[in-house]
Amino acid sequence: MFHSAAKSLSVASTSLYSRSFLLRVRHYCDKAPLKLRISQAFSTADLGKSVKIQGWVRSVRTQKAHIFLHVNDGSSLQSLQVVAGAELNDQLLTFGSAVEVTGILKKSPHQKQAVELEAQRIHVIGECDPVDFPFKIKERHNLEYLRQFPHLRCRTNAFSSLLRIRSEATAAFHSFFKDNGFVQIHTPVITSNDCEGAGELFQVEPSSVGDAHREFFFSVPAFLTVSGQLHLEVMSGAFSRVYTFGPTFRAENSQSRRHLAEFYMVEAELGFLRSLNDLTKVMEDMFKSTTEQVLARCVEDVDLFHRHVTPGHRASVDAMLKSSFPVMSYSEAVEILGRSTENFTFPVDWGCDLKTEHEKHLVKHCGNVPVFVTDYPYRLKPFYARANQDPPQNTAAAVDLLVPGVGELCGGSLREERLDVLTAHLEDAGLEDTYDWYLDLRRFGSVPHGGFGLGFERFLQCVLGVDNIKDVIPFPRYSHSCLL
Ligand SMILES: NC(=O)C[C@H](N)C(=O)O
User: Fold this and answer.
1) Closest atom, ligand 1, to C-alpha of 226
2) What is the per-residue DSSP string for 183-220?
3) Which numbered atom of ligand 1 lies nearest the CA of 229?
4) Which end of the chain, N or C, is less surrounded by CB atoms within 10 Å?
């Protein structure tokens, strides 16, 4: 960077600067240490060079003649060992302090690390009192403890690994959709519809209070989105394959390990899709492809989880990837649950909504691999689900993907594309005026279509074996908690 800056200065502005000034700039640039992200320092390309790193101290060890630091800058799990003469020691060099170190990058004589930095200068940029700092050197703090410090937990190995994995998983979903011909749509965060009809809406209004009689800001009640599905259905009518990946909000008054008031949802919609089979194939391919990409691109970070945070979980992930996800109908699921000797808190009868305990039982029944449950009772599903022609049962062409440790990961359905059937359903629900625009989609070039939504945090829980959803999102929001 410095080289190119000097070059462009000399090319663009020769007339403004003297030749000797430009030579001095170039000399400085040639001598200036190379600024490296720590993950780059581990490639042998920069051995012997003068480099500068910036990061936070993960450990300090003092000997008579030397001090040894481990410095991490978040670019990877690895910390770089810094070796310095005792004269560079500084009382402020403590666990957690922020430092800038300049020195020569050398091959390390120790087996544990390939390179180390022989420090010429150490500058403590930000002090950190080790007594007050909530994390202690060499202590492995569990996720529950870390949760108390949403503003500091990214400084620990476990949580920084988690966030790098989350970032890579985000990229993996985008790659999957790009590779399969989907167009990304930014669906709105503020909306006037309640797609799921469950009434778990956060209403949006400006904060200025006082005028009790003022009108709605948008002239109609507006809410934070619970799903981008209806907007995706609009777009699938033009692009055929579309997806969205963004924050979603549900005012569920739940403190469970699987619910958040704000979570990220990956949603896809496919036009010209006629069967649930075609939909489950996309869901299974997506799950496997994204999981494989995360495992391949985050080897060290995932390893940290599977070894130390959730030991033994890797075998479960490998089993999921190897299996062909079984498919069972809701009716079969109810039969299996009915035959079970397990003491469920909620009784199971045909027509009941499946609870987490039931979902977990079904997953266990299938050998702890993901399982699709299809054809739910029609009355359990929102107005958009396509009715199956199967009296007297009256089911909908809807599917849930249940996964080990979590339960429901994805929910999807074929959408009712028949104008007459949809109109009748909306009239029954008294919603025909609200959704007149939705009926237009069926009036003008309607095609059979379907889609699904995947809870991104639940996906991370499933791949990493993390029990509590609050531990896989940077800043969790749930009832009675909106810290920071
Ligand atoms: N896009 C989807 O199919 C997700 C579905 N609307 C849900 O919220 O469960």
Assistant:
1) 8
2) EE----SEES--TT-S----B---S----TTPPPTTSS
3) 1
4) C
CB 248 within 8 A of CB 162: no
Rounded Cα gap, residues 28 and 51, in angstroms:
14
CB 244 within 8 A of CB 209: no
Cβ within 8 Å of residue 251, ≥6 positions away? 200, 201, 202, 261
Helices assigned H by DSSP within 147-194 = 157-179
Closest C-alpha to ligand 1, atom 3: 452
d(CA 128, CA 91): 11
Q: pLDDT tens for residues 437-480?
A: 999 999 999 999 999 999 999 999 999 999 999 999 999 999 99
Flag whether the pTM goes above 0.95.
no
Q: Nearest C-alpha to atom 8 of ligand 1 is from which residue?
A: 227
* Token pair belonging to 91: 């009382």
Structure tokens at 98: 């922020």
Q: Which amino acid is at 109?
A: P
Q: With contact defined as beta carbons under 8 Å apart, do 352 and 346 qualify? A: yes
What residues does ligand 1 touch, defined as CB less than 6 Å away? 195-196, 227, 229, 267, 411-412, 451-453
ipTM > 0.90 for the complex: yes
**Distance from residue 453's CA to the centre of ligand 1 (Å):** 5
User: Which residue CA neighbors atom 9 of ligand 1 most closely?
Assistant: 411
Dist. CA 290–CA 172, nearest whole Å: 5
CA distance 340 to 324: 24
Phi, psi of 157 (to 5 degrees): -60, -45
Atom of ligand 1 nearest to the CA of 382: 6
Q: Which of 196, 223, 401 to mutate to test the pocket of ligand 1 (most atoms within 8 A of CB)?
A: 196
pLDDT in tens, 396-434: 999 999 999 999 999 999 999 999 999 999 999 899 999
In the numeric block, the tokens 């209806």 are attached to 230
**Which protein residue has the closest C-alpha to ligand 1 atom 4?**
453
How many other C-beta atoms are found inside a 10 Å radius of the C-beta of residue 359? 21
Which atom from ligand 1 is nearest to the alpha carbon of 267? 1
Rounded CA-CA distance 197/176 in Å is 30
